[in-house]
Design goal:
Blueprint: H1 2-7, E1 13-17, E2 40-41, E3 44-45, H2 46-56, E4 61-66, H3 70-79, E5 89-94, H4 101-111, E6 119-123, E7 126-128, H5 133-145, E8 149-157, E9 174-180, E10 183-190, E11 210-213, E12 216-224, H6 227-234, H7 241-251, E13 260-265, E14 272-274, H8 278-289, E15 311-313, E16 318-321, E17 327-328, E18 333-334, E19 338-340, E20 345-346, E21 351-353, E22 356-357, E23 362-363, E24 368-370, E25 373-374, E26 379-380, E27 385-387, E28 390-391, E29 396-397, E30 402-403, E31 408-409, E32 414-415, E33 420-421, E34 426-428, H9 459-480, E35 487-488, H10 500-512, H11 520-544, H12 551-563, H13 583-592, H14 600-614, H15 618-633, H16 641-654, H17 656-662, H18 666-681, H19 692-702, H20 708-716, H21 723-729, H22 732-744, H23 752-761
Parallel strand pairs: 1-4, 1-6, 4-5, 8-13, 16-19, 17-20, 18-21, 19-22, 20-23, 21-24, 22-25, 23-26, 24-27, 25-28, 26-29, 27-30, 28-31, 29-32, 30-33, 31-34
Antiparallel strand pairs: 2-3, 6-12, 7-14, 8-12, 9-10, 9-11, 10-13, 15-16, 34-35
Helix pairs in contact: 4-6, 13-14, 13-15, 15-16, 15-18, 16-19, 18-20, 19-22
């Protein structure tokens, strides 16, 4: 009987959205007409990562929905190097009239092609090694019991955007869950960075234990019932899947109208990230080189690539293609996190680090390239310097040119001799604004009113476009040089009503999405604004207080524990502290008294409540957590190095949710290092017995509690310090680690000045 049911079971289908309906990849997708999903990521077309994942998940029929340059996608799929069994069918669906993901899903609903329940819906720019089989089984079980359980979204745990550079700067996703026996049902989905507070209907608290988190990233992969397509057909104003459909569906309070959407969290060792823009493109590339997504690594490419290319991996994650005839001069230094494609030539005395080089590239003598991307057939002449930039196919950089950080050089462009390209410049051969690349009018994730068919594209817009062309032609020589070729690309202006402030915001959005952008200032300003909002709320509530307390007061007391999962500084809400209370000691004792085996998230809520009541700071919480780590390690002067490291790593991993909750900026991470340092100098002798402090720094970095920038800033502060601190800092193993980190650094601070100092110190 079971065999008969399986025989008639619908084969698993998947829908890949090949268009992102944004312009964040311009001008890389202009001029050549290459769709975003066919752009190379570590010398593999992005689409191939998605196809490989779905084939491994057991999908038997894939629909690739294409809008722009659909013929190129279809041609690529037909001639792809991917060699799947004949049991897997791949079909391209083309419709140039679609201007959003919502339009695409409505079109699919009208075709009745998607019949499997469930089917997988994903973006074509996702890279993942996730095992989705378990999530599919859970979704099916929920769906069988409850027909309104129509969607499961896959989430990947990730730190704040200030730390995780593949998370967008304008991504401030907060998700609220109700933990029920069927799974984690989503009740809140809010990714509007402008919101400093969170609104939850009071009805949701009846019978629900709500957990609110902001340490998650939507992977762009969902498991859906065909009913999802029908919902989009019913709601013609839905354009965006997450921002409109998911947000509105989970917020519905009336029981009979609710679409139940659930969350599935990727486990340890699972990886998923979406290439939104050049910034996340660079971050994901580096993470793949670091082998975070194993077995999705450069030396194990998608099916079919092995016929033409084979990569080997060496020390410091240097990947080289060995089937081709790549030649590298002996005097050239190849640094960490570098990938070199087939049939490349690299001349004498070059310094290349953190760079992905495509096939058939020619790099002449004396060239310096760091943290950049060269696609195919790129030519770099003598004495060129390139920092944190993307050079598309066929680009030529002539002798002595300097390419500043954050630059994008479009297909076939030429930068002239001795030209210095300013930071964040984008060049293209397209001499006009091209809105056909994608459908979003700018880089803002909150603009939901734009349509490619709007009447706003009138004669007025054409006049403005012509004026822009004249502007391009006038500044071409000054930008790329007399022997250069290309136009400077600017974001399109939607109407004459756009003022200077809006244009400035759009320019900032471009920078925020670029390689080399330092987002620290933005996050610091965002944090200050939240604190100011908290103060304003305090003042307002003080004026409106009654003897019995307000409704808002009672609600705060009702769910303050659950709301503690938010990334919001509540220290401003209560002024004052009990006399004689050592908050760090009390916080540490709470951690030490925590019962092993109990969820650390519950401890985080308890700590946050104490922090709230005593007006403690994030630094207090971080210091207490670090002191608790050392106490729980239970080491002494005779503890062997290996046991020391094992105990340190174990306790750091166990309490990592506390660090994730209370660490938001580089300054917070420095507090962790300084606490270990102070403990070493203040009586915890095992911490200063060499090479213990090197192990501390390396382990904190390996388990991703602190980043390179925090270590560099901490080290810089020791140029002038007392003798005892200097002696600990100058221990040989510690200095060796700092030197190695400097050579292999990802430069996550993305600061130009840091890049300059790194280049000067390179061997």
């Amino acid at each position: 009987m079971v065999q008969q049911d399986n025989k008639h079971e619908q084969k698993l289908q998947a829908v890949i959205l090949a268009d992102s309906f944004t312009t964040t990849f311009q001008p890389m997708t202009l001029a050549s007409g290459t769709p975003k999903v066919l752009c190379p990521l570590n010398n593999v077309a992005m689409l191939d990562y998605s196809l490989e994942f779905l084939a491994g998940a057991g999908v038997k029929e894939m629909f690739i929905f294409c809008v722009n340059n659909a013929d190129k996608v279809e041609e690529y799929v037909q001639q792809s190097t991917l060699q799947y069994s004949k049991a897997i069918k791949i079909k391209c669906i083309k419709d140039r009239n679609c201007g959003s993901a919502g339009d695409a899903l409505r079109y699919l609903d009208s075709t009745n092609l998607v019949r499997s329940d469930p089917f997988i819906l994903m973006s074509g720019d996702v890279v993942t090694n996730a095992d989705i089989v378990g999530a599919l089984a859970q979704h099916k079980a929920r769906r069988k019991k409850d027909s309104s359980a129509i969607m499961t979204i896959l989430f990947h745990k990730c730190g704040p955007a200030s730390k995780a550079s593949h998370r967008q700067v304008d991504d401030d996703l907060v998700v609220g869950f109700s933990r029920v026996k069927e799974g984690n049902r989503i009740l809140v989905y809010d990714d509007d960075v402008r919101n400093s507070d969170l609104s939850i209907p009071t009805s949701f608290f009846f019978g629900n234990n709500i957990q609110v988190r902001n340490d998650l990233v939507d992977t762009g992969i969902s498991i859906c019932s065909p009913d999802v397509l029908a919902r989009f057909s019913d709601e013609f104003d839905y354009r965006d899947i997450q921002k409109q459909f998911v947000r509105n569906s989970v917020a519905e309070e009336e029981e009979g109208l609710q679409n139940r959407i659930y969350a599935h969290f990727l486990g340890d060792g699972e990886y998923a990230a979406r290439v939104h823009n050049p910034r996340s493109y660079a971050s994901i590339s580096r993470q793949l080189l670091k082998r975070w997504a194993f077995p999705v690594v450069p030396d194990n490419p998608p099916s079919g690539y092995e016929k033409y290319y084979r990569y080997t991996v060496g020390r410091k994650y240097v990947y080289k293609e060995v089937k081709g005839l790549t030649k590298i001069a002996r005097s050239t230094a190849i640094g960490a996190y570098t990938m070199i494609g087939a049939d490349c030539t690299i001349g004498e005395n070059c310094a290349i680090k953190g760079t992905v080089i495509g096939n058939q590239c020619k790099i002449y003598a004396g060239v310096s390239i760091s943290d950049s991307f060269l696609w195919e057939e790129v030519m770099i002449e003598d004495d060129v310097k390139i920092t944190k930039s993307i050079l598309c196919d066929g680009v030529i950089i002539k002798r002595g040119a300097v390419i500043g950080k954050g630059c994008i050089i479009g297909h076939g462009c030429v930068v002239g001799e001795d030209v210095t390209l300013p930071d964040f410049t984008r060049l293209t051969l397209t001499d006009k604004i091209d809105e056909d690349d994608d459908f979003s009018d700018d880089f803002s994730s909150d603009d939901d009113d734009f349509s490619s068919d709007d009447d706003d594209f009138s004669d007025d817009f054409k006049e403005k476009e012509e004026a822009s062309i004249e502007k391009y032609e006038a500044n071409t020589a000054s930008i790329v040089g007399k022997d250069g070729k290309g136009f400077q690309w600017y974001p399109s202006m939607d109407s004459d009503s756009e003022d200077d402030d809006e244009a400035e915001d759009k320019t900032l959005s471009i920078k925020m999405s670029s390689l080399g952008f330092d987002s620290t200032k933005i996050f610091e300003e965002r944090r200050i604004l939240r604190e100011e909002d908290a103060v304003d709320e305090i003042s307002l509530s003080d004026e409106d207080k009654t003897i019995g307390g307000s409704v808002d007061d009672s609600m705060d007391n009702a769910y303050s524990g659950d709301m503690a999962e938010q990334d919001v500084d509540f220290t401003m809400n209560i002024v004052g502290r009990q006399k004689g209370v050592d908050v760090v000691k009390e916080l540490m004792n709470l951690i030490l008294e925590h019962e092993p085996g109990t969820a650390v998230e519950n401890l985080a809520i308890e700590l946050n409540s104490f922090k709230f009541s005593q007006n403690a700071t994030f630094a207090d919480c971080i210091t207490a957590t670090t002191k608790a780590v050392v106490k729980k390690m239970n080491v002494n002067d005779d503890t062997p190095d290996m046991e020391f490291v094992k105990a340190l790593r174990s306790e750091l991993k166990y309490l990592s949710p506390l660090y994730e909750k209370f660490c938001h900026l580089t300054a917070d991470e420095i507090v962790i290092i300084e606490t270990f340092e102070n403990l070493a100098l203040g009586g915890e002798n095992r911490l200063k017995i060499s090479p213990a402090f090197r192990f501390i720094l390396q382990t904190l970095h390996d388990v991703e509690i602190i980043g390179e920038q925090a270590i560099f800033d901490w080290a810089a502060s020791h140029e002038e310090c007392d003798a005892e601190k200097r002696a600990l800092f100058m221990q040989e193993p510690t200095q060796e680690f700092l030197e190695w980190l400097g050579d292999a650094s990802e430069s996550e601070s993305e600061s130009g000045s840091e890049d300059s100092s790194d280049d000067e110190n390179d061997d």
